[in-house]
């Protein structure tokens, strides 16, 4: 296989996307302070919120790399928008800021997993509701209803389409395993976590024995059924954090977070016992300085050794030691 870390696609928005979005919001808010919607507009608040958004934009690239970092950053920006909404003195300002909040919710639908996007949409609706009620303007229920419906409809539609496209890009149609690119990204995340926390991580490279013979003697549809049933069987014995990726015709990679070599060997033995079709496997465990390519290369070497030993009848050598 030999894939590079750089081949893994960005399935969700990067920190750069969020930083650019926050910076643009900051500039727009500065514009609102320089050219206020009314003579009584609290210009100081506009500049204060612009400073908050600019600070968030600057901090986004250097904040800790945790799953919650970017959603929380956007949530803080939404709270800043709520402060401005509550201080609007004109209907124009209220509408413009509401559109900004809707845009932030749409960014969440595009950028983040569905659960995070739903939470941020709920926060956006709460911010708009609070701002419209607290603003020193007459509250019009119809205006609130229209803005709320627009926010929910547009954000939900964008999230649905984005998630469908993301699923299509990350899931192998035949087997339901991850695609190569999605696997690389998941593996990179698990490797980063393992190296940061010192926990174990094992990778299993596997392929079907004599798969060409299956296709030639039983037909390609039968071969497809073998691959699909194999992934189904493997998945039944995996934990929630483990993942399977299809990286070639009959080649798969199984990522086993929290498992050392002995645990990975036990999983392989148990998974083999539950499959009618024989398959070979090579195991690699993560070291402190490994990249995803290092892991996959070693797993491939172990797989090829296992296949060679199967043909010769000798026991395959174990994977080379890794840095403790």
From TrEMBL:
The chain crosses the membrane at residues 18-37, 43-63, 70-87, 117-135, 141-161. Gene3D superfamilies: 3.30.70.270. GO terms for molecular function: diguanylate cyclase activity. The keyword Acetylation does not apply. SUPFAM superfamilies: Nucleotide cyclase. Keywords: Membrane, Transmembrane, Transmembrane helix. One of its GO terms (cellular component) is plasma membrane. One of its GO terms (biological process) is negative regulation of bacterial-type flagellum-dependent cell motility. CDD domains: GGDEF. Pfam families: GGDEF. Residues 199-319 form the GGDEF domain. It comes from the Bacteria. PROSITE patterns: GGDEF. This is Diguanylate cyclase (GGDEF)-like protein. The lineage of its organism: Bacteria, Bacillati, Actinomycetota, Actinomycetes, Micrococcales.
């Amino acid at each position: 296989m030999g894939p590079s870390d750089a081949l893994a696609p960005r399935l969700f928005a990067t920190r750069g996307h969020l930083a650019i979005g926050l910076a643009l919001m900051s500039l727009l808010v500065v514009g609102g302070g320089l050219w206020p919607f009314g003579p009584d507009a609290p210009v100081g608040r506009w500049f204060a919120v612009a400073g908050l958004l600019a600070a968030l934009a600057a901090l986004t690239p250097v904040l800790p790399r945790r799953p919650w970092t970017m959603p929380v950053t956007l949530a803080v920006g939404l709270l800043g928008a709520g402060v401005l909404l509550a201080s609007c003195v004109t209907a124009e300002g209220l509408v413009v800021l509401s559109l900004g909040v809707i845009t932030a919710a749409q960014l969440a639908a595009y950028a983040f997993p569905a659960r995070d996007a739903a939470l941020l949409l709920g926060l956006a609706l709460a911010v708009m509701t609070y701002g419209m009620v607290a603003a020193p303007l007459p509250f019009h229920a119809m205006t609130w209803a229209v803005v709320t419906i627009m926010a929910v409809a547009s954000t939900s539609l964008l999230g649905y389409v984005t998630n469908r496209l993301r699923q299509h890009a990350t899931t192998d149609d035949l087997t339901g395993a991850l695609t190569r690119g999605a696997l690389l990204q998941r593996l990179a995340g698990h490797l980063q976590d393992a190296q940061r926390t010192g926990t174990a991580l094992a990778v299993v490279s596997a392929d079907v024995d004599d798969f060409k013979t299956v296709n030639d003697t039983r037909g390609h549809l039968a071969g497809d059924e073998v691959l699909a049933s194999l992934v189904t069987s493997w998945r039944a014995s995996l934990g929630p954090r483990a993942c399977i990726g299809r990286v070639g015709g009959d080649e798969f990679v199984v990522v086993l977070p929290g498992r050392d070599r002995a645990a990975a060997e036990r999983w392989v033995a148990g998974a083999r016992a539950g499959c009618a079709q024989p398959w070979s496997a090579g195991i690699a465990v993560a070291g402190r300085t490994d990249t995803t390519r290092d892991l996959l290369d070693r797993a491939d070497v172990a797989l090829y050794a296992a296949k060679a030993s199967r043909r010769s009848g000798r026991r395959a050598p174990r994977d080379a030691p890794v840095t403790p």
